[in-house]
Specification:
single chain; two-stranded antiparallel ribbon; 146 residues; Jelly Rolls; 7-stranded mixed sheet; 18% helix
Length: 146
């Protein structure tokens, strides 16, 4: 019994303190004016545990064509923090129809400040910091395949 408890404790610690690597992936396309497209392969978070953990404990930056998509349970004003997140990020808040409702750029790693926008959203896409500036992604752009 003690051996099983130790194994369970070790499993839980590994799950808590290691990055999520086995999430499902999908391809998204960001359509920016004028007629600019950027394809991304994103990991998709749908459960409360996946959403809560996000990109925590990941120490390597994402590739330029990678991100993490948070599928929220409701259309609401969502907030995020950067606890245990080692890489700076841009946060893209997206409505149900795929329209970008707001962007928070270059969010500082490990910050415990809640970050949100003043508009409701249904999804949040996290990408490397400066991604939005580099690819001219802005409020009102459309993301397909959400």
């Amino acid at each position: 019994m003690i051996k099983e408890i130790k194994l369970l404790r070790e499993f839980i610690q590994n799950e808590l303190y290691f990055p999520q690597n086995n999430l499902p992936k999908k391809e998204l396309t960001i359509h920016s004016y004028p007629d600019k497209k950027k394809k991304l392969i994103v990991q998709v978070c749908t459960t409360n545990n996946e959403i809560s953990k996000g990109l925590m404990f990941r120490k390597d930056t994402l590739n330029d064509d990678e991100g993490m998509l948070f599928c929220m349970k409701s259309r609401d004003k969502h907030s995020f923090w950067m606890k245990n997140t080692y890489i700076p990020l841009d946060m893209i808040f997206i409505d149900y129809n795929g329209k970008i409702a707001g962007i928070i750029k270059n969010v500082e790693p490990h910050s415990l400040n809640n970050r949100s926008i003043n508009e409701p959203s249904a999804y949040v896409l996290e990408v490397n910091a400066n991604f939005c500036d580099k690819h001219n992604v802005k409020i009102g752009d459309i993301i397909n395949n959400i």
